[in-house]
Amino acid sequence: MQYLLYGPLAAKVAHAWRETGSPPLGSWCLHLLVLLALRSLTFQLWFSYGNMLFFTRRRRVVKDGVDFRQIDAEWDWDNMVILQTLIAAMVANSPAFPGVAELRAWDLRGWALALLLHVTVSEPLFYWAHRALHRGPLFSRYHAKHHSSPVTQPLTAGFGTPLEALVLTAAMGAPLAGAFAAGAGSVSLVYGHVLLFDYLRCMGYSNVEVVSHKAFAAIPALRYLIYTPTYLSLHHREKDSNFCLFMPLFDALGGTINARSWELQKEVDQGMNDRVPDFVFLAHVVDVVSSMHVPFAFRSCSSLPFATRLVLLPLWPVAFAFMLLQWFCSKTFTVSFYFLRGRLHQTWSVPRYGFQYFIPSAKKGINRQIELAILRADKMGVKVISLAALNKNEALNGGGTLFVSKHPNLRVRVVHGNTLTAAVILNEIPSNVKEVFLTGATSKLGRAIALYLCRKKIRVLMLTLSTERFLKIQREAPAESQQYLVQVTKYQAAQSCKTWIVGKWLSPREQRWAPPGTHFHQFVVPPIIGFRRDCTYGKLAAMRLPKDVEGLGSCEYTMERGVVHACHAGGVVHCLEGWGHHEVGAIDVDRIDVVWKAALKHGLTPA
């Protein structure tokens, strides 16, 4: 709603456009709106680049992740941009600044004067104002909020109090005001100066070292003319040095340069602080729309459970183009990470989309991508790699068995996580239930659920047309429990059963056979749509990560904050327990309770 503040500017542009029949290129209101869009794009592009871990992971200054607390605190980071645009609109429309009324496209004198004023006015003004903000009550009242973000991001550059925004506005506006007062201002100067100012601010806050230490070694004086992300990060964390705007020269003159600035910058630039993950969750893209939910696209989307947002629909062609690009020339890449009890957990993604897993000719290529990811993890020293959703499809690779059989000497443990998935579903079923209806009954999960429940003397109506597969599962059950497994071939057989465990997609017509009051437990991907208002629908099996998880700032598909799919959680438990076996192929029913108790012991809770 805050963007409604631009209503008067937009209305003025629209009125002038209607009156003249063409875009009012001589209107400052139009230029300010265009500049607003370009500034927002600058922040967004730097944010996306900084969070593309497959490009920047080795050169991150601070290795910690950005958590939900910081994301929520910085949610209105654009308030500064809004304030500055409104101030500019007032100046442009004020008779007190007559030089602004004349619009010239270009004036080289203005560029030279703006550069001079930046060095002689903006830099020292910001330096001394910044130092003042770090003293006594000024810091606690007006600057501590900005420093409360533990990991800098380009969006952190706009996060702060109104006083900080005014100081930055003065630093940014002084060169422009001087140029226009001297009659040398131009439209190109406004665009160039403001966008370059934002570019350098975003670069410093990106938390990714983009300035080569070799440049400083070749030209030592350069280190006093331009700061680096490492330089600013030291200020942000230690708060007692490196106060400059863009030029460390003023820290040198003020005696406030952090002695570690150049040494640390060299270490980060060379990737010397990179770390091997302990656990990897190997995911894949669901579809084109959900691909825009990745953490390096839009933080306001990825930090919330996935939902189709109309505002993203115009970007669908871009997302579709990226899908084609990944299909033909891409490999597994790092998407996100978090820390749990000192262990680094990462999510990697196979560059394939859900529909591609059902194209027969694509299976070989997909398996090759998964195999290369496992071998890469093994070479790096990863302890556990967990396969997500379709990456462990039985028809694709036997639930991971293909890779373990092909590479018997793997040090990394390959885990499908379905044991914990089964445990989550089974522990959702009320203890007083005596009968369940099971679809997808002969699948890997269906088999384990049926065998577990029949041991508990719960009658399982197994929907399958294959008597052979049913009898094979039934023979696995103890002799005294086999009577509790019943084959059914039609949905009508469950008309009186109020507990449905769904492992196969159900159409509205099939759902209507459930009696009123039925609860649908699910392990089908994608989840079924709840058409029945007189029934309840469970979500996909999931668990909430322990409270001491650190640096988690994105949601896993449709899961709530801090919640991950059960197969992801299964890999986490495998890593925390230090188990030395692979978990691939058929689910070991005897281990369902073991894995469940281990998950609860480590602080994971049902979601």
TrEMBL record:
Membrane topology, as annotated: Multi-pass membrane protein
Domain Very-long-chain aldehyde decarbonylase CER1-like C-terminal span(s) in chain numbering: 436-606
GO molecular function ontology, one term from the record: iron ion binding
Keywords: Endoplasmic reticulum, Lyase, Membrane, NADP, Transmembrane, Transmembrane helix
Family according to the record: Belongs to the sterol desaturase family.
Pfam families: CER1-like_C, FA_hydroxylase
SUPFAM superfamilies named among the record's database cross-references: NAD(P)-binding Rossmann-fold domains
Gene Ontology CC: endoplasmic reticulum membrane
Localization annotation: Endoplasmic reticulum membrane
Name used for this protein in its record: aldehyde oxygenase (deformylating)
Catalytic reactions on record: a long-chain fatty aldehyde + 2 NADPH + O2 + H(+) = a long-chain alkane + formate + 2 NADP(+) + H2O
Record InterPro entries: CER1-like_C, Fatty_acid_hydroxylase, NAD(P)-bd_dom_sf, Sterol_Desaturase_Related
Fatty acid hydroxylase domain segment(s): 116-256
Domain of life: Eukaryota
Entry's transmembrane regions: 32-56, 108-129, 310-328
Enzyme class: lyase
UniProt EC number: 4.1.99.5
Single GO biological process annotation from the record: lipid biosynthetic process
